[in-house]
Amino acid sequence: MSDTRVRPRLSTPVLAMVLCLVWSSAFIFVKLGLRDAPAEVFVALRAVAAAPVLLAGLVIRNAAGLGRALREPRVHMVGLVLGAMSVAGFLIFSTLGLELSGIGFGVVLIYSQPLLVAGLARLVLGERLSPRQIGGLFVGWAGIALAVLGELSGADAGPHVWQAAALFLASAVCFAVGTVVVKAVSSGPRAVPLPPALLLALVYGSVPLIAYATTADEPVRWTGSLVVSVLYAGTVSLAVGYLLQFALLERGDAGVVSSYIFAVPILAAVYGVLIFDERLSVGLVVGAVAVAAAILLVTVPSRPRLLEETP
């Protein structure tokens, strides 16, 4: 009896670290994929690649439960909302931003979403914020301001900094809204099962993404690099990332996952420097550290709570 209880707990931090590595490394393959495909096409390929893998994983986990859930209208309604916000909106805005800017700048702004979740949950769900969380919000937004100012003052600052910043922040807003929806519907007596809802989100979110892909002006170069990028950014980052997240949620260790989220923007920024030779300004570095600290202050609970998701 004691072994069955202890063994899963011992592996939880390892799974959380793997999940953060998957999330952070996805930015590498998005940037690589954008060399061969326009953003409009790449986001559609990414979502279409993820949906069958997630479906297979959920069937293996609990085929009967998945079938029952997919017959519930509420699950489809939640899937529609998440498809619009957490899939279509998030992927479009973040990928368009990465066409204009580097990983380091993008990931710092995209990962402002835990700060947005805290504020939205306070306004919409009536969740209380502790003094530590309020301080974290101030630290986080100060860090974002420093990151933007650092990018603007950089020696290689491009003409599209403000446009990229707006796209990254729009992606953060989309995902934050989706996360608040998940928090609202996944608890209580009429809770909506999260895995089927996220599967439907990928399916429904793929529809506008495919339509958007038809508006691309630039051709697609079907290289090996593009195929690998689509497979990793879609199947590994989205589908496998969700499956890891579900496994951690089932163990009730949301606090452990939250405590590792802060590392994602730092890791992704390091990848940008090492792989793409991106230059980090002092403002961006200080801003990234501030945002990471803010994520810790805002998301790490004193006792376990609902997992807050991040791609």
Describe the structure.
- With 311 residues, the chain is mainly alpha-helical.
- The protein has one domain.
- It has helices spanning 2-33, 39-70, 73-100, 103-110, 113-125, 131-153, 161-185, 194-213, 224-250, 254-261, 263-276, 282-299.
- The longest helix has 32 residues, at 2-33.
- The model is unreliable at 1-10 and 304-310 (pLDDT under 50).
From N to C, what is the helix and strand string? HHHHHHHHHHHH
Structure class: mainly alpha
Helix count equals 12
End-to-end Cα distance, whole Å, is 35 Å
Give the count of structural domains.
Answer: 1
State the major sheet: none
3D shape: globular
Short description:
This protein has 311 residues and is an all-alpha fold.
